[in-house]
């Protein structure tokens, strides 16, 4: 379970759950999920106005269908026969979710140990995953100002073309 920002850095990582568990089940059992449900998460920013607007909105997490609908979690509308307004909402939400998907893609493409089952006991495997995430964040943050980014070059992650189609760039190397 992880939270990533628009710069593809991980803000929260809870490693150690097995892949056969659903995202919703993992969320309900991780520290972030428990804190959001009990409303004891104190580090969320206060609601703030949108850029160039007086409209104040809360900060939220973006999830998929497996996540519960909560005050600070947005998830897509379910179903196939949706109004245009709901289809647009779901589309825009999926664009926001692409940030975390790209963060995972960059992480897995650069740290080959994450591409297959890690042949270690769960405690050590958990430490390997967390170390990869820490190194990923370090490289993402410390290479942002450099002209020639080697860890995550320009257009390394998926991007949106002007006609609203996705240009898939992420290639496992």
UniProtKB/TrEMBL annotation:
Residue span, DDE Tnp4 domain: 2-137
Required co-factors: a divalent metal cation
Gene Ontology molecular function, alphabetical: hydrolase activity; metal ion binding; nuclease activity
Cell inner membrane in keyword set: no
Keyword Iron-sulfur carried by entry: no
GO-annotated cellular components: nucleus
The entry's keywords: Hydrolase, Metal-binding, Nuclease, Nucleus
Subcellular locations according to the entry: Nucleus
Cited InterPro entries: HARBI1-like, HARBI1_dom
Family that this chain belongs to: Belongs to the HARBI1 family.
Protein name: DDE Tnp4 domain-containing protein
Native source species: Stegodyphus mimosarum (African social velvet spider)
